[in-house]
DNA sequence: AGACTTTTGTGATATCTATCACATTTTTCT
DNA sequence: AGAAAAATGTGATAGATATCACAAAAGTCT
């Protein structure tokens, strides 16, 4: 296992900034950096969970097989930890993680990660904070998915891409229509219809994957009321 | 603030079993035990989050206002921690917690809880494990809610009550029809129709809130396939 | 460049569940 | 015990979205 220089890494996590030089060294000795192309699998569902993954750069989707079809659980943007719940909470990976664009990730052995949790309370605390904030985010996200109709569900996610992922009202969607359907729990035909309707109402402008939000205020209203 | 004797408490959490006598004493000095009747509010949404709650005995529901109606996020049975994500992850309580039967809870000041996290890695680790397992549970629960139709959604929850809460195929539902509708995201009329259909098919026998699962295998099949 | 595969858009129809209304039953309060 | 309120069950109808089919457009590979 190659030795990564975590101390000098400019993309390390907020949590690891709490670690001493010796702790960073321990981390580096048990850490491997890997590059991924779009579509490649970073972590696979139903395999043994032996590593914590830290996403240095890129964008990924967390997916799981549901009763009827694949479900996109969440989309995460670097920098962030991936697979923490499934590695610490179970022996088997409960979901897969797929790169949505070129990405770079570091794999850390679970034993080393647990050791760092024990010897650095500040590190442990930051990780716990992240878990707590993630849970609150999941509650909000799923309640909106469950209670809104499909216009509201699509609007919510378009706003998420704009505000949280790209920081812009104009961007290339990282998902095809079928994947968007997996994200908002509908069919790909319905996604097409919604994009057509939003375009006709001058709420968005879309050409293939390139999208521009024309009436963000209206999207916010649709997102809120469903 | 009265001094609770946490050291001698027979209902303390697995996590606190890692604490030394001095740490338990610190906990006890900043801990208040309160009893609740069914329907009473243990933690209220949109109030300041200043306490961690440990449920010693009883059963509770976590609820939040959604775009259309109240959503039951989760039902939790003692012994367990409540409100961890919302107290550590935000300054405001993101959801309410209501007793579904007579319950006893201990309120711990967040500052003391954080202190214990810092001084006891084993305690911290157990709390983190709990957060991770909870997140996995939420993923499974919400994916089934999102993808199954209403028969599957009701079946899943009846099995949850039977297997995880009551450990019996015969029990009193802790929720009325409207609350069950809040749990599985449907209308109270639909809940009535489903109970009627399941009764007609000899899958369950229900009289008011008293229910007996007659064909658990069938419920499992419906839960799986929706 | 062209063939092949994948993705997308739209029309038509079917299915599922919400909503509304109302009556009945059960529970709560005095 | 009786009145009032809340909860429940059922019927009828409306609305939302899935499904199926098919054609067209876009992307990939050789």
What's the arrangement of secondary structure elements?
Two copies of one chain form a homodimer.
Chain A: H1 21-29, E1 31-36, E2 41-43, E3 51-57, E4 59-65, E5 70-77, E6 80-82, H2 84-89, E7 96-99, E8 103-109, H3 110-119, H4 121-147, H5 150-166, E9 170-172, H6 177-184, H7 188-200, E10 204-207, E11 210-213, H8 216-225
Antiparallel strand pairs in A: 1-8, 2-7, 3-6, 3-8, 4-5, 4-7, 9-11, 10-11
Helix pairs in contact in A: 3-4, 5-8, 6-7
The first copy, chain A, binds a DNA duplex (30 and 30 nucleotides) through helix 7.
Task: Describe, in short, the structure shown.
Two copies of one chain form a homodimer. Chain A has helices spanning 21-29, 84-89, 110-119, 121-147, 150-166, 177-184, 188-200, 216-225, and strands at 31-36, 41-43, 51-57, 59-65, 70-77, 80-82, 96-99, 103-109, 170-172, 204-207, 210-213.
Largest interface comes to: A-B, 47 and 47 residues
Approximate strand percentage of chain A: 15-25%
Structural class of chain A: alpha+beta
CATH topology category name of the largest domain in chain A: Jelly Rolls
Task: Write out the CATH superfamily name of the largest domain in chain A.
Answer: Jelly Rolls
Give the uncertain stretches of chain A in residue-range form: none
Report the CATH C-level class of the largest domain in chain A. Answer: Mainly Beta
| Secondary structure: number of strands of chain A | 11
Order of strands in the sheet with most strands of chain A: 1-8-3-6
Largest sheet of chain A: 4 strands, antiparallel
Number of helices of chain A: 8
H/E element sequence of chain A: HEEEEEEHEEHHHEHHEEH
What's the number of domains of chain A?
Answer: 2
Radius of gyration of chain A: 19 Å
What is the quaternary state of this protein?
homodimer
């Amino acid at each position: 296992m190659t030795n990564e220089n975590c101390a000098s890494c400019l993309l390390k996590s907020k949590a690891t900034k709490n670690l001493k030089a010796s702790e960073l060294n321990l981390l580096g000795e048990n850490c491997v950096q890997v590059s991924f192309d779009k579509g490649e699998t970073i972590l696979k569902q139903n395999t043994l969970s032996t590593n914590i993954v830290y996403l240095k750069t890129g964008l990924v989707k967390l997916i799981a097989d549901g009763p009827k079809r694949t479900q996109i659980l969440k989309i995460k943007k670097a920098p962030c930890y991936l697979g923490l719940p499934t590695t610490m909470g179970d022996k088997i990976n409960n979901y897969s993680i797929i790169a949505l664009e070129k990405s770079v990730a570091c794999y850390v052995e679970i034993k080393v990660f647990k050791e760092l949790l024990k010897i650095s309370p500040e590190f442990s605390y930051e990780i716990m904070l992240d878990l707590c904030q993630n849970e609150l985010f999941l509650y909000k996200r799923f309640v909106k998915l469950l209670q809104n109709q499909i216009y509201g569900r699509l609007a919510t996610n378009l706003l998420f891409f704009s505000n949280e992922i790209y920081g812009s009202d104009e961007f290339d969607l990282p998902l095809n229509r079928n994947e968007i359907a997996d994200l908002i729990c509908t069919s790909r035909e319905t996604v097409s219809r919604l994009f057509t309707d939003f375009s006709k109402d001058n709420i968005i402008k879309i050409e293939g994957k390139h999208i521009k939000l024309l009436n963000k205020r209206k999207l916010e209203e649709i997102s809120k009321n469903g």
